[in-house]
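Entry:
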Amino acid sequence: MNTTLHIEKELAPLRKQLKEHTLYTSLKKIDDIKTFMESHVFAVWDFMSLLKVLQQQLTCVSLPWIPVVNPKTARFINEIVLCEETDVNELGEPKSHFEMYIDAMKEAGADISEITSFIFKLIEDKNINEVVSNSLVIDEVKEFIKFTFDVINTSEPHIIASSFTFGREDVIPDMFFEIVKNTEEKANFSYNKLTYYLKRHIELDGDEHGPLSLQMIEELCGEDQQKWDDVLYYAKESLQKRINLWNGIAKKINKSILV
């Protein structure tokens, strides 16, 4: 069996859990969406560190410039960086997807104070573990971010690419489609900035970035079975951390309903 197909088969149960997660049906009113965004924004933020470390490792970002080993993976990463760091919003203005998400939070009336404080503390003190530990976010968000940086600290491109591909890009279309469906069709309200952000991700990740990221994994692993084993392990761990994050957000939403 093709190795990528084998990994996809192994991940199917976890992907099914994500696609059918009760979180989506918990998003019934605007307050639920706000609660979701206030935690999910940290996953939007830490995705960029995964992406930028891949850019550091797979392209040349130092001087003097030298040709990269694999132009195919370098092109893929540079294309992702272009879209994620300098895409255009619904008004045609250049913005990172993180900034677009913050704008969507403001439009929805979500609280951005915790993510804003988090970023300011990172600027002052770049010790990510301390900043995360001292944050007031739910434990599942802290665990999610800490795992992301544990992956980054392996300094292994194939491991980082596994978390990037199977824990992020590869599952985003399924996850975000469910959120769009519940917010627009069932809750009967629409927020242009959030809807644009979600649909933009579905468009990019489903049609372009998802398939390309699978090619990146194949390029990085080649015929090395140990690397493929690492990819499968970290793919499962990444998906489980996403499920745990969804569990924590769903619990927070349900708790707020009872208050």
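The first helix runs from residue 3 to 19.
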